[in-house]
Amino acid sequence: MERESFKKNDIVTVTIEDIGNDGEGIGKADGYTLFVKDAVIGDMVEARITKCKKNYGYARVEKVVTPSPFRVNPRCAFHRQCGGCQIQAMQYERQLVYKQDKVRENLLRIGGFSPEKIDAVMEPIVGMEEPWHYRNKAQFPIGYDREGNLIAGFYAGRTHTIIANTDCLLGPVENKIILEAVLSYMRENRVSAYREAEGEGLVRHVLIRTGFYSGEIMVCLVINGKKLPAEKKLVERLSGLRFKEKRIASISVSVNTEKTNVIMGGEIRVLWGNGWIEDSLRVLNAADFGVAENAGSERAEREEKVTFRISPLSFYQVNPRQTERLYSLALEYAELTGKETVCDLYCGIGTISLFMAKRAGKVYGVEVILQAIEDARENARRNQITNAEFYVGKAEEVLPQLYQKEGIHPDVIVVDPPRKGCDEICLETMIAMRPKRIVYVSCDPATLARDLKILCQGGYEIRRVRAVDQFGHTGHVECACQLVRKRVNYREEEIEECGCIYG
Ligand code: SAH
Fold first, then answer.
1. How far, in Å, CA of 456 to CA of 111, rounded?
2. Residues 390, 335: one domain?
3. How far apart are CA 389 and CA 375, in angstroms?
4. pTM (2 decimals)?
5. Domain assignment of residue 99, yes or no
6. pLDDT the model gives residue 53
7. Ligand 1: distance of its center to the CA of 86 in Å?
8. Which of 59, 84, 153, 459 is deepest in the core (most CB within 10 A)?
9. Which protein residues are within 6 Å of ligand 1, measured from CB?
10. Which domain holds residue 490?
11. Which ranges of 335-423 would DSSP assign to H, the alpha helix?
């Protein structure tokens, strides 16, 4: 019997039974699967269908009929418009369960591992004690509201309409004060904001970056022109701001006169202070970061740290507290004793490489972006690390060279690829190099699962997996995984360990 089909704008009642890849609710209306934006698992909602496909459709919540026990009052009044926090209406503890399940499900479904295996190796997700004010970087668009008032805020989800809000709860509280100061400088000195449609007007974005440990703040105005009028007034206003534990250390402009969605321009001009800020990441003991345990304990504080110089254009992880937990976990999974040779692929500015270098014999970092490698080398110098060497190029091209031409035999290979995961040639080379351990740091459990399947077919076995929540209130999850090479052939192992069969 043919079921009556749904169409756009129909209102349906749905019970939300699952959570989708981006944190949306999933439920069925009359057997038809709907992905419902802003619905929380356990809710019964009235939803408006926004798009219909043959076997499934999309909808958004019109009215919550029966709220889920996991539904909370979102703290941010703009969360539905903004789209930055897809799951802010879900209780934080439930968010963590969702992320843990997401990693597990991907390993089962895409990786093809058995539930027994995964349950034996998976450790509990590392959540944040305070899932607010965790981001150290924000880029606020500047523009006008409908009445022509100057505003700073964010783009409404998937549009370029700016909604006025200087108080994003994911960033430091100082951002609001800094943005208000920039806006009042603009008003007093009749500085225009950029109007995207016409490509006219001056100030496009304000970038604010904060060193969570150093307390240093960087403010960079992205402008559609060479110069700001009354630059001195801006500098006076910003440098005069006083905060309890932080201070503005760098004020600059970035010139971007292109009609483009790319935020930053290439040319940076420093107006005041340094062209950079500094920040550090500490090496922690895993025992110090169980869920809601004693973060920042004295023991953790005493551990080593690595210091970084961050410029407006540098890449730097946005949640420093959770990054040091994730990278400390990667370090623990590497099981270094001081002698090992380590390859760190997709190394960025060398954060993981420098963590590893402190405990390894030699570290080789590989990264495709030249600027990041220059930062990595500078960071090694600043930290007096002399046993780390960095190569520019694609991992899938540089690794085969390190293997075949340079004859490098790493004991440990660490990878931290972007969402699309590792290239197949890279994975094959890793397998051919036969390191004792592989540490896979991932920001996408689906590609992680796909790559682990290949590595495990190539003779490796998963020993430990642990997710770390770097982006509370969003659907993203990161994790670290330890793989060890299986002892396939006893004689082969013996040759390797003793140098000869009779050794
Ligand atoms: N561990 C790094 C961040 C890794 S993000 C840090 O903490 O700084 C992933 C990195 O992989 C990015 O820096 C990106 O530029 C780089 N990348 C992307 N594709 C690559 C490839 N094919 N080979 C090498 N690096 C690549």
1. 9
2. yes
3. 12
4. 0.91
5. no
6. 93
7. 26
8. 59
9. 315, 317, 346-349, 351-352, 366-369, 372, 394-396, 416-418
10. 319-497
11. 351-357, 370-382, 395-404
CA distance 15 to 214: 48
Residues lower than pLDDT 50 in the chain: 1-3, 291-296, 299-302, 494-495, 497-503
Measured in angstroms, how far is the CA atom of residue 67 from the centroid of ligand 1? 41
Q: How many domains does the chain have?
A: 3
Could you give the CA distance from residue 124 to residue 96 in angstroms, rounded to a whole number?
9
Tell me the best of 306, 367, 424, 425 to mutate to test the pocket of ligand 1, counting ligand atoms within 8 Å of each CB and taking the most. 367
The two three-digit tokens of residue 416, written as one number: 């931290």
Strand partners, 374: none
- From the list 435, 446, 433, the residue with the least C-alpha distance to 412 is 435
Model confidence pLDDT, tens digit, residues 49-87: 999 999 999 999 999 999 999 999 999 999 888 878 999
What are the percentages of helix, strand and coil residues in the chain, rounded to 5? 30, 30, 40
CA of 254 to the centre of ligand 1 (A): 24
Supply 112's token pair.
């093809």
Q: What pLDDT is recorded for position 304?
A: 81
Indicate if 260 and 330 belong to the same structural domain. Answer: no
Q: Are residues 355 and 471 in the same domain?
A: yes
Last residue of a domain, one of 70, 89, 113: 70
Q: Which of 440, 447, 449 is nearest to 479 (CA)?
A: 440
The distance in angstroms from the start CA to the end CA of the chain is: 75
Residue nearest to atom 8 of ligand 1 (CA): 348
Tell which one of 346, 364, 402 to mutate to probe ligand 1, the residue whose CB is within 8 A of the most ligand atoms. Answer: 346
Give the separation between CA 90 and CA 163, rounded to whole angstroms: 23
Give yes or no for a contact between 224 and 254, defined as CB atoms under 8 angstroms apart: no
What does each C-alpha distance from 495 to 341, 501, 503 come to in angstroms?
19, 5, 8
- Distance (Å, rounded) from C-alpha 183 to C-alpha 462? 52
- Residue 373 corresponds to which amino acid? I
Task: Write out pLDDT tens, residues 84-133.
Answer: 899 999 999 999 999 999 999 999 999 999 999 999 999 999 999 999 99
Query: Known catalytic residue: 498?
Result: no
